[in-house]
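Re-run with default settings, no changes from the original entry. Doing this only to confirm the output is reproducible before filing.
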Amino acid sequence: MKRALPVLVLTVAGIVPVWRYAPADGTATAGPDRPAPPPAATASGTPSAGASGAASLVVAGPTVATEKGDVQVEVTFEGEAISAVRMLKQPNHPQTTAAVPTLIEETLRAQSADIDTVSGATITSEAYQDSLQAAIDARGA
């Protein structure tokens, strides 16, 4: 009986943050209740002139359905290089939200879809790589 009160107090202390948890707002991704932001150029890969005057090409990859949710990327090319990657669709999950910056950083470093998956977000990482590779392939078509 002496342990019941501390166990109850610690249980409540552990549950309260879970009840109060609200995902950070202000992400640039689409969700089921929020439409995707408009792309910088058409998703068909129409070139546009950037601030530096160099032609940039924006290509959206296909939507990849996973058990966690849909994943879709948009890739911006400056000449031959990948200059930016943006998530158009991603699962609404804390592990995915934490993995996206790492996936984008690795893509920009590797300049390809040949990147490692992020531990804890393997399904999303693999779908990200599939959508990214399709966008890279579509650029060359």
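Strands lie at 47-49, 55-60, 64-65, 70-78, 81-89. The helical segments are 4-20, 94-110, 122-140.
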